[in-house]
Each structure stands twice: as structure tokens, then as C-alpha cells.
Amino acid sequence: MRAPFGEEGPIPNHAWHRPIVQRLFEYFTLHHSRPLARDQILEELWSKAEPSTAAVTFRTVFSWLRNALEPHLRAKAPSRYFQVEGDVYLFDPLDRVQIDTAEFAATIRGVLNDASHHDVPPLPQNLVNALTAYRPLLPGLVLEE
Questions:
Q1: Among 14, 111, 118, 125, which residue carries the largest CB count within 10 Å?
Q2: Residue 63 pLDDT more than 60?
Q3: Angle, to 10 degrees, between the axis of helix 51-69 and the axis of helix 38-45?
Q4: pTM for this structure?
Q5: Rounded to an integer, what distance in angstroms lies between the CA atom of residue 136 and that of residue 10?
Q6: Where are the domains of the chain?
């Protein structure tokens, strides 16, 4: 994955506050442009915590994430990256964010589709480029706390 960008360019490591902020960012990017109920987020990321504790933790971590992406955004101001309606969260509602994993998946789908027309399909250059450029989503991110 290319370095995550916020409104001011690449997000520096210190802006994430804690690994859980990066994990929440990763979660939202993996669910790009899909509405997510808060209960679903809490269940998938904080299933072992008491519901009230998970809700408070999520609010805090979500605030840190918004701050990492848009450091000059006022607390209650609308975000360019999130749409929140009630208990439903949507990352990148205007489809402005370019996510390399989505591009990678689209390239693979295209190659697999083309492969059905060949006995031994050639490797297209965009697939070779995607495989060469592949890096872990957030290198060094600890997924368990």
C-alpha cells in the first residue's frame, strides 16, 4: 500500500496516536464506500470488550483517525473522508480516495477474465507492475492488542 495521505500529504507515523487508529483506518479502507453500522464495527474490532467500553473506545479512536486524516478539521465539522448518519459510517462517500488494493483487485479480475480466452494467458504489464509494487497494507501494524 502506498503511504496513507491526509489533507497535507503522507500521514506521519506520530499522527496515528496508537496502532488501533491505523487498524480502524485499514478497516474503513477495506470497506471502502460501503455503509457500516456502528454495531458491526464494534463487533468486528472490539468483540471482546463490554459494549459500553467498545463504544467509548470507538468514539475516541474515530476522533483520532479524523484528526490524522484532517488535522485542521474542527471537532464537529463535516469530514471529506467520512459521512456519518446516525449510527452508520461511510468512508469516502464521494469516491475521491484512490485505494491501491482496489486497483490491484480490479487488475486481477481483468486478468482472470481474459484468462478464460487463452490456454496459457500472457501476463499483462499492469499485473506485473501491481505484483512488483505490492506491499502490506500497513507494514508493521500489530493486529492484536
A1: 111
A2: yes
A3: 100
A4: 0.71
A5: 16
A6: 1-145
Report, at the CATH architecture level, how domain 1-145 is classified. Orthogonal Bundle (1.10)
The CA distance from 11 to 47, in Å, is 28
Q: Is residue 125 pLDDT above 70, yes or no?
A: yes
Query: Would you mind telling me the total number of residues written for the chain in this entry?
Result: 145
φ and ψ at 36, to 5 degrees?
A: -125, 125
3-state secondary structure at position 82: strand
Residue 64, pLDDT > 90, answer yes
Can you read off the three cell numbers belonging to residue 66? 479524523
Q: Is the pLDDT of residue 134 over 70?
A: no
Q: Who's near 101: CB < 8 A, 6+ residues apart?
A: 1, 29, 30, 137
